[in-house]
Amino acid sequence: MTYTLHAAHLYGDLMNTYGDIGNILAMGYYAKAVDAKIDVDLVSLGDTFDPNKYDFVLFGGGQDYEQTIVSKDIQAKKAALTDYIEDGGPMLAICGGYQMIGHYYIGAQGEKIPGIGALDHYTLSQDNNRFIGNITIKNDETNQTYYGFENHNGTTFLGKGERPLGKVLQGHGNNGKDGTEGVIYKNTFGSYFHGPILARNEALAKRILKLALKRKYPDADFSALDQLNEDLTKNVVIKP
Ligand SMILES: NC(=O)CC[C@H](N)C(=O)O
């Protein structure tokens, strides 16, 4: 392989709901088309996160209990992760991971679980309710439609410098109120979509992959990734 990306799977042993690791596998699948591969390190409790080593970070979802453990450990990685994000490092944060890169998440029992506040959103709790089911959103910048499955207690509200990943067409999204889903901040993407999101949405997988490749190899030609194979009509949304 001509090109190699180094990916960090952040707390992949604790936060990997519905096989969120599939997001890296999907990127690796498309990477082959441009002679690239992705090497993955698990970066977990007690490990150091080196912002200069990684070209992509995946931070998956998890249960409230695991999030309380991660919340304590991640404070030691806060500065390095914030540097990585601010420097335009590509990241995909799903559900619990998305909550933890913001200020805090109020868990289902009312406990405050601090995040790292690298992004300006915060997440509240619902009273005896979860948002569960299929979800469809539209990203206005690209006109692309993304499909996924959400299962969360948290209701997230975006803050300064954050724009949504998409507008909700079906399902609940960030908070069930303002019609937004997920976040984009610099090259960091957050979403409540499991599925995994990149396995189900080729266009987004290629967009994030290309960002990572171009950042590391600015002079190489990755235009082969602009070609989409997916037939979006295949994404049949099953109503609950
Ligand atoms: N699927 C998840 O990652 C869930 C995140 C969090 N525990 C919540 O319920 O909102």
From TrEMBL:
Identify the catalytic residues.
C95, H194
Hydrolase in keyword set: yes
List the residue ranges forming a coiled coil, or say none.
Answer: none
Role, per record = The lipid II isoglutaminyl synthase complex catalyzes the formation of alpha-D-isoglutamine in the cell wall lipid II stem peptide. The GatD subunit catalyzes the hydrolysis of glutamine to glutamate and ammonia. The resulting ammonia molecule is channeled to the active site of MurT.
What the entry lists under Pfam families is as follows: GATase_3
Q: Which reaction does it catalyse?
A: L-glutamine + H2O = L-glutamate + NH4(+); beta-D-GlcNAc-(1->4)-Mur2Ac(oyl-L-Ala-gamma-D-Glu-L-Lys-D-Ala-D-Ala)-di-trans,octa-cis-undecaprenyl diphosphate + L-glutamine + ATP + H2O = beta-D-GlcNAc-(1->4)-Mur2Ac(oyl-L-Ala-D-isoglutaminyl-L-Lys-D-Ala-D-Ala)-di-trans,octa-cis-undecaprenyl diphosphate + L-glutamate + ADP + phosphate + H(+)
What keywords is this UniProt entry annotated with?
Cell shape, Cell wall biogenesis/degradation, Glutamine amidotransferase, Hydrolase, Ligase, Peptidoglycan synthesis, Transferase
The entry's family comment says:
Belongs to the CobB/CobQ family. GatD subfamily.
Gene Ontology MF term list: carbon-nitrogen ligase activity on lipid II; glutaminase activity; transferase activity
- Record pathway: Cell wall biogenesis; peptidoglycan biosynthesis
Q: Which gene encodes it?
A: gatD
Full protein name: Lipid II isoglutaminyl synthase (glutamine-hydrolyzing) subunit GatD
What are the recorded Gene Ontology BP terms?
A: cell wall organization; cobalamin biosynthetic process; peptidoglycan biosynthetic process; regulation of cell shape
Output the superkingdom of the source species: Bacteria
EC code(s) of this entry: 6.3.5.13, 3.5.1.2
Q: Where is the CobB/CobQ-like glutamine amidotransferase domain?
A: 8-201
PANTHER family for this protein = DETHIOBIOTIN SYNTHETASE, LIPID II ISOGLUTAMINYL SYNTHASE (GLUTAMINE-HYDROLYZING) SUBUNIT GATD
Subunit structure, as described in the record: Forms a heterodimer with MurT.
Classification via InterPro entries? Class_I_gatase-like (IPR029062), CobQ_GATase1 (IPR033949), GATase_3 (IPR011698), Lipid_II_synth_GatD (IPR043702)
| Binding positions for substrate per the UniProt entry | R130
| PROSITE patterns documented for this protein | GATASE_COBBQ (PS51274)
